[in-house]
Amino acid sequence: MKDQQTVLYDAPGPRARRITLIGSIVAVLLIIAGGYFLIYKPLDDKGQFSMDLWGPLIDPNNEVFPLVWERLGEGFKATLIAAALAIVSSLVMGTALAVLRIQLKSLVKRRYEDLATPLAYLLRGLNWFLSAVSRIFVEIFRGLPVVITIFFVASALPDLGVDLGDILWYLVIGLTLYNMVVIGEILRSGMEGLPGGQREAAEAMGLSPFQTTRMILLPQAFRIMLPALISQLVVVLKDTSLGFIISYEEVLKVSTQIIQALDDPNPIQTYTVVGTIYILVNYALSKLAEYVQRRLARGRKTRGLPIPEKPSAALIAEVEAGGRL
Amino acid sequence: MSVLVDHFDVFASGFWLTFQLCLLSAVGALLMGTLGAVMRISPVPPLRWVGTAYVTVFRNCPLTIVFFFAAFGLPSLGSNADFLKIPGLDSLFTRLGIDLPYFRFGIIALSLYTGAFVCEAIRSGINAVSPGQAEAARAIGLTFTQNLRFVVLPQAWKAAIVPLGSVIIAMIKNSALAGFFGVVGDLSNGAQNLTSALGEPIIPVFVGVSIGFLIMTAPLGLLLDRIERRRTVAR
């Protein structure tokens, strides 16, 4: 960004600097004026800044402060539990889906010429069918809103006689259905994007197709796609908030209950606090994704270097210390 | 499956309303996103800060909270989003002009939220243009605006179209949330009514709603795949 930005305009001279300064001052004044008249004043007129409304959230001496934060803490705990379960299960299922689709894709090409003709046709038809089913599954759940998936999982499963007891599981299943498909596609495109030589070399060594995927392709795909996978964590964490639709007691649902229970309902204040916490956590996660991406990009640059025939002990130590990727 | 036939009007009108919501929000999001992207590359630091703050806040905040603010925060600011009652447009999109503000709140929430992602898509497109292009443009004496207009943006647009498309697909899916925030009669609200109020069987309703959303998302997704594949071949 920095590079691009500096080439868009010349290094400012005295006149341009003056114009920029004046522009900055005007912009700041406009922003302050806009903020005051459009946001601060209407809020103040409605008494949204009074301590009656903010007190329960930010004043430790307020009588309900500990109660409010205890409930909010429980809410956050529930959010994190749901998010963690959803992430783990979507990672596992997504990896399985990616491997399955890659395997099916290579099986579809197989002609089974050593088998009797009807049997060969049957196997080829079966492979084609399974490949089509997995493709349709992916397209459907990728194209459906998560809200709808969660809502219908929560109402359809009990209807079909599957009672999971805790609402948590419906939320986790709904989130998993969507995110496993996304993660599966991320990994699959990662594996297909690898140089073809990787697969060929593995096959030449005598690895079976499954071994090739498991030992050669998947680890590299994971590494390349790590930033995308971390970004997906942010998405899962954000989507956990949809649990309020099926009355899972995550932080937003809890906030709504708190707001209703307080003597002076304070929706704006409570949602501001909860939103800020969400933003901080997700911002940290997306920074982590950027950092990982930078690290990986730096690692890729060294790939072109000649590799010593036998790695020296110093090099091994360096790699193990995590100094160089 | 008879519910699909019996209540076809619910699905059809729900689809139409969701489609309107998506269309208007997409326009709003593209406007917000372009504005944000222009702010983020402008030479004036405070504008850059505002752009960055906007993107950071809305990218990291769950859409649910944005919807809460739009649906409960705006009324307590004393606004019914009446500025969206644009004459002429509201005769085409009749929901814009009615007194019940939730359709307008939905548009605002979706536009603001999606705008942040649009901004990122445009910015990544601008970053994909090699610096040499902008340098060459400047060397032949184009100003900042001319540089953007004739050299950088036309190329950035090409690089940004696939990410932009994915953002719009995500927005179409996100629009399902509007039905849980007061918008009456869109696909998700219609589905809730059918299953809870009328006690219709759940799976067929689910199929109907899915078809409604897939009609919008699947062709767009296929189109994007195609553009992307052609792009890689061309390169």
UniProtKB/TrEMBL annotation, chain A:
> Where in the cell is the protein located?
Cell membrane; Membrane
Please state every residue range assigned to the domain named ABC transmembrane type-1. 76-289
> Is Transmembrane helix one of the keywords?
yes
Regarding the membrane, this protein is recorded as: Multi-pass membrane protein
List residues traversing the bilayer. Answer: 21-40, 78-100, 136-155, 167-187
Q: Which SUPFAM superfamilies does the UniProt record give? A: MetI-like
Keyword annotations of the record: Membrane, Transmembrane, Transmembrane helix, Transport
Q: Which InterPro entries does the UniProt record give?
A: ArtM/GltK/GlnP/TcyL/YhdX-like (IPR043429), MetI-like (IPR000515), MetI-like_sf (IPR035906)
Into which family does the record put it?
Belongs to the binding-protein-dependent transport system permease family.
- Protein name according to UniProt: Glutamine ABC transporter permease
From TrEMBL, chain B:
SUPFAM superfamilies according to UniProt: MetI-like (SSF161098)
Q: Which InterPro entries match?
A: AA_ABC_transptr_permease_3TM (IPR010065), ArtM/GltK/GlnP/TcyL/YhdX-like (IPR043429), MetI-like (IPR000515), MetI-like_sf (IPR035906)
Q: Which UniProt keywords apply?
A: Amino-acid transport, Cell membrane, Membrane, Transmembrane, Transmembrane helix, Transport
Where in the cell does this protein reside?
A: Cell membrane
| Bilayer topology annotation | Multi-pass membrane protein
Please give the start and end residues of each transmembrane region: 15-39, 51-74, 102-122, 159-182, 202-224
Q: What is its main location?
A: membrane
The family classification in the record reads: Belongs to the binding-protein-dependent transport system permease family. HisMQ subfamily.
Protein known as: Glutamate ABC transporter permease
From which source organism is this entry?
Phytohabitans aurantiacus
The record lists the lineage as: Bacteria, Bacillati, Actinomycetota, Actinomycetes, Micromonosporales
